[in-house]
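Dear support,

I submitted the protein below through the web form. The confirmation email said the job was done, but the results page showed an empty box. After a refresh the structure appeared. I'm attaching both so you can tell me whether what I see now is the final result or a partial one.
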Amino acid sequence: MADAQTASGRSIAGLLTARRGGASWHWTDVFTYVYLAFGVCLMFGPVLWLALSSFKTPAGLLEFPPTLLPLGQIEVEVDGHDKPLPLYKVTMEDGTVRELAQIRRIGIIAQMVDPNDPETSIRVPIASREPIREFRVAWENYTKPLERFNFLTYLNNSVIVTVVATLITLLINSMAAFGLAIYEFKGRNAVMLFVIGTLMIPITIILVPAYLVVTQLNMVNTLWAVILPGAATPTGVFLLRQYMLTLPRDLIEAARMDKASEWAIYWRIVLPLSLPAIAVLAIFSVMWRWNDFLWPLVVLNRSEVYTLQIGLNAFQGELDVQWHYVLAMTVVTLIPVALVFAFLQRFITTGIASTGMK
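What the results page shows now:
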């Protein structure tokens, strides 16, 4: 086991230090590593900033210039004051530096006091003070929404919608792709072109008709109103059909000669062989359903059936936005998608490469 880990470490180190050739560095090696490092920072920098900012206090989010790490201002107890006072490092007129607590601020002048001498009030220009901060993680950004704002209910609704909608999407799209890829009939290509053509129709055009249909079926304010309308996707049908076209026809004909039913061919032969493409569609479907905002916002009006994305919108008031809660719950919404991608990402290259997509 130790030898395997050592060999794995060496292979990773060799990959990270690979060069164009020889022992010396070529300018293309430097350019490649700089370009890759820039790409990594460009892709993962915002995610890192989001994760670190989700642990900041509301005051820390409003600081300028902003800080990368979550820092909180130190507060001290001062006799004669009910609440702790923020502590500052103040440069006095004679050049000495003192640690003073701020009582209040009036314009450009701050009224401050020495914690060791609370009886004496000192007036200090705000330009000569600097807040004393420490590394502080605001765990309440995560705990309070989960306890007070029914975010566990929103999370449960999103999980139900994503799982059920993904299963229905995979079933319907795979059956449609099976019919368009395996069967030979007149007008098959025209039907496929019609399916692909629906990609050109924006959701805003079908929003009102779809809402009227959902209303007539009495599904408004239910999770089925979010699950069913988008069950069949042209992207999924196209992706699976292109993959199924690459399956050997002799295998299907042999199954028919063995008197296998069409359902058995679909369920026992075509679906198992199409798993890479199905995994790709599953990833896409999870991202679509998990991040869907506009349609759930239209058909869901009761808080008990809100999904996570609609629940996040509840933190945005008319005059104030609770950014510390929004950032924390955004991180929570990213975790399931990241886990699904981590488990299924090995199928992406195989699945897409075999569908004819570029």
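Response: this is the final, complete result; the empty box was a page-load delay. The two ends are 40 Å apart (CA to CA).
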